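Here is one chain, start to finish.
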Amino acid sequence: KLGTDSNIQDNVIIDPSHAWLIQIGDRVTIAPRVYILAHDASTKRLLDYTVIGKVIIGNDVFIGANSIILPNSTIGNNVIIGAGSVVTNSIPDNSVAVGNPAKVISSFDNYQRKRLEQFTNSSAIFDESFTSKFPQYSATTQDGRALVFKSSTTDKTAFYNVDENGNAPKI
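Its structure:
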């Protein structure tokens, strides 16, 4: 089952032989190269058994690139799974989890507050000098490390590193 308004990106594998055991909620983003598996055949030769279990992904979830979600895993609502993580059990609502195996490192609210402070405290330029240079974008930081672009045409945000002179990459 796939909820509404979800974004499944390139090269995501949703266990084709056991897809009926996988439930994906509303407003879920699954980044590139994520594997969602409802079976584990590692014991098949040795024990002649295969582990089969449900995977439930709640609403408002982001799963980072190259993550693996294993059978019998539940990811709650309002959860971020960091890139490269391996989910082997349950991740509770309102949390951020990373690692192998994935472990909760923060509440969703604390993570969101911290990231918002980072962006809010950067010195963003919203003047004509930036928009004339990059008319398709509306903001950039001047911290010497990254540019934050908010596209006026697609309403999406992207982050780019800048070079030693503070120049943006070619777009």
